[in-house]
Amino acid sequence: MTExxxxxxxxxxxxxxxxxxxxxxxxxxxxxxxxxxxxxxxxKLEVVEKLAKLKIFDRKKIGEAVHILTLVINQHTGGDAIxxxxxxxxxxxxxxxxxxxxxPAPHTSGDFLERFTEESVExxxxxxxxxxxxxxxxxxxxxxxxxxxxxxxxxxxVYGNCKENASNSYKNLFGYHPLLLHIHNTGELxxxxxxxxxxxxxxxxxKMLRYNIQRLKSWFDEIILLADAGFFEKxxxxxxxxxxxxxxxxxxxxxxxxxxxxxxxxxxxxxxNNKKQEDSTIKHRDSHTFNYRLESLKNSLKKRNKxxxxxxxxxxxxxxxxxxxxxxxxxxxxxRQHIIMFK
Length: 343
Fold this sequence. Notes:
By secondary structure, this protein is α+β, with helices and mostly antiparallel strands. The protein has helices at 36-44, 47-51, 64-76, 85-90, 92-97, 106-114, 118-142, 205-216, 234-243, 255-261, 292-302; strands spanning 146-153, 156-157, 167-168, 174-176, 179-183, 188-193, 222-227, 246-249, 269-270, 307-310, 315-323, 328-336, 339-342. The strands form four sheets. Strands 6-5-1-7-8 form a five-stranded mixed sheet.
């Protein structure tokens, strides 16, 4: 019986093992193997058959589904421009996942996109909503017929002056300002409305919200809306109240609210979420457990060689406040935490 050597190898020693490299013509390889999940979803939702109803680009050899899926695959595999579809064309294994899909030439895809009008975009939106219906039914069972939706908007910068409807946004960026509605529970995009860059944050929010609440009411008994201060508008709140859904909307801090916050009779209670926020470096899926604004402020100060340090527990208070412009009383909830800034 021999004893195993306990001597460790020197730290500066490198032992590269032997490898055998073979070339095979049996099958192709792809760096985008995870795309088979998208292929399965497309098949399950019968996307190809539904997109064929668009009838935007009348060509016998190339259908609408081929054009749209080419652009979707291109984007999900890292493509930044239509010209990048050439790399999809060269990836044989990737095309095999989608049934040896024909990849149109970049200029052909460009011709297809040029034929999109507001009417055809709206038709595409309706088709996508039809495909969502089955999934909403399954999701309602998973979420026990309770859903949280979040309303938001984002600025997308574009370059060049030939972009139709592009304009300067409030951030002084030239581009578009789409309105987005997400399923907060899962992070999935529920709806989107295309808008010019100069559009105000809440433009068309009432229309989008009313339409989607009616869609969701078929599957969900309880709907809660989350939105930031850009949607603190009477028209948005009126839709929520008319449709019978709850809402949590951030408000701006004006003089009457400040008076409420500095009232000595206001009771501040220690939040139950203090344990979850002990380590602010951990990003949780639920945005309520991670203070993104505080993190953004920290990063901004860091560039100026300044730092923030939290001193004290997170506290919460609530009060009723009448919004004078609306003549109606609402419940306001605020939180506070003592922080200091140092160099």
